[in-house]
Structure formats: structure tokens, C-alpha cells
Amino acid sequence: MTYNIGIIGAGMYGKVLGRCLQQDERARITWVNSASEATTRAAAEEFGVEKWSLDYREVLADAAVDAVIIATPPYLHAEQLAAALAAGKHVLIEKPLAESPESVEKIVEMANKAAGCVVLEASCRHTRLTRKFQFIKGLIDSGKLGEIYHIHHNHLTRGTFIEWNPKGAWAMNKTLAGGGPFIDWGVYDLSFHLGLLDDLPQLNSVQCFTRNDLRDMRKLVAFSDVEQHGAAWLEFDTGLTYYYERGAGVHAETPNETRIYGTRGGLRFQFPAWDSNEVEFFHLENGEPRKETFTIDMSDAPDDSLAITTHFLDCLDGRTKPLMTAGLAAKHMEILFRILNG
Hints:
Layout: E1 3-8, H1 12-21, E2 27-33, H2 37-47, E3 51-53, H3 56-61, E4 67-70, H4 77-86, E5 90-93, H5 101-113, E6 119-121, H6 131-141, E7 148-157, H7 161-164, H8 174-177, H9 181-184, H10 186-195, E8 203-211, E9 229-236, E10 241-248, E11 254-262, E12 265-269, E13 278-285, E14 288-295, H11 304-317, H12 326-340
Parallel strand pairs: 1-2, 1-4, 2-3, 4-5, 5-6, 7-10
Antiparallel strand pairs: 7-11, 8-9, 9-10, 11-12, 12-13, 13-14
Helix pairs in contact: 1-11, 4-5, 5-12, 10-12
């Protein structure tokens, strides 16, 4: 079956996902939309689409549209998802799910009521769809690590979001984006790490700090109030503890590294596909400490964004169910908001 798909938010990630959809014969892009006429026209030209609009409601009003990509800033997600589901459209919604706990709650309620519509959230992109995730989860499920009792993750950069994407000023405004690096990357961090444990641990307590006074951002963006550095100590009902540190704009740099500690063994790795594909396994052999290094074959692995559009179309076909539902994404967002709100 071929699905007619509209792109709501044809900026950077909307175009990335559109290019991936064009590689699958099941998808036909029929509409593009964004708030900028120049951006929308450019996307329409790139994708060879005749129908474009600055009003996303025109996309949803087309009865021939089966599904939409919502790739707009987070503060628009709740409104646009509500309209899409009311129009009976399936939705792939970009991460993060929304900019506030209130909007997240509304989205979950709407998704739960829209029984006939697929709603896939994008934080499984660099996580649950990757070979690294599948390999590491297989190690854990095999019992080789024993009981997982602690996770340690940190990633600090001196650069910030606006330096990576100069057109993304909205991402520096907490009211529009929800937060800084904890929201931008935290949804991936929790999707990966908690997914390894089947999302069973439930958060009991948080101790944390955040700072946003490390860099004066006025030379780069008119307004910025998102966190630049933060860390949290999370305790879960299973006894799991999790030290979690993120920063963008910090006076230091650390690699994107995860360490997982179990009663029988431990792991050290970098989960993004573009980082090292080696996984270090620490354990005992005949009572003596040993280390094995596994190399994951990533040579023919699909691009992460192609993997998520393929997964979305598979969900529409009924071949599988969304790896990241609105409800599951909301669980991760709740933890991140607790960190940001102290």
C-alpha cells in the first residue's frame, strides 16, 4: 500500500525525514508546510510536491492525506497533534514530545483516545532501532551482567544548540523548547538506557542541579534561558540508581559515554551510531577480572532517520507496533522535567 504523507514543519528535520520517506516506495509526499514561505517553497521544490501551505490545517483538510510528520518546535506539538488526530491522520511526531508537563499530559490523553491512529514519537531514532541497542539489550537479557544496579551516563560539550543550528533560536527558549540539553538529548538518553530494562523501573526520587549562567549567549541569540549544565542522581523502585549528567555550554568536554554496572559484569560504550562501535564487557573468569571488547558491525546499518521512517511505515502496514508511544515518551519526559524543575 502507498501512503500519502504531509510534512508539517518542513525545516531541518522535516526535510531529513522527507528524504528518508522518498527512499521507500510505500510513501508519497503530497503536502509540505512550515511557517516560512521560503522554507516551504524550497521543500516543495526539493520533494517535487505541488501542494504547499503556510497553514498546517490545509494539509489536514485534504482527505487524501493518510499520515503526517510533525516536525515543528515542541510548543506547537499538542495543538497540531490534536488537529491531526481529529482529522483521522496517523502521526510521526518529532522529539521531544512537548514543551511542558501540561502539554505532554494532553498529548497522551489524545493519543489514547485515537484508537485507530498510529502515533509514533521519534526518540527511538538513535536508540531502540539501532544495532547497538539490540546488541547491548541482548547481553543484558542473557543474564551475563546479572542484576543491573547502577547506570552512569555523561556527555558535556562547550558548544550549544544554536551553534549547531543557527536557525533554531526557539530551542534556546525554555517556554518554547521545554529545556536545553536535557530535553534535546535527554529523550534519547532515557529511551536507550531505560529501554534496556524494558522501562520497568519507576522513578522514586531525584537529587539534581542545573546552571544556565556559564556562557553569555547574547552574541549568538537574542534570548536564552535553557540550562547549560546539570546532573541528577535518580533512584528507582527496583533499587536501580542512575547518575546522569548533561551539558551544552560547559567549561569542559566529556564523550557521550555510558557505563552499566551489574552484579556479574559491567559495560562501557557510546550509544550514538556515529561514535565508537565497540562495547567493553568487564566480568570475572575463574574468579579473575577479565575484559572483552565486542565490535558491532555497523557497515550496512540503515541511517537512523531512515530506520524510523521505515518503522513508521511498518506500523501503518500493521507489521509492528510503535517502539515509542506517546505514553512511553511521556514517562521519560516526566523524569526530565523533574530534573529541570529541581
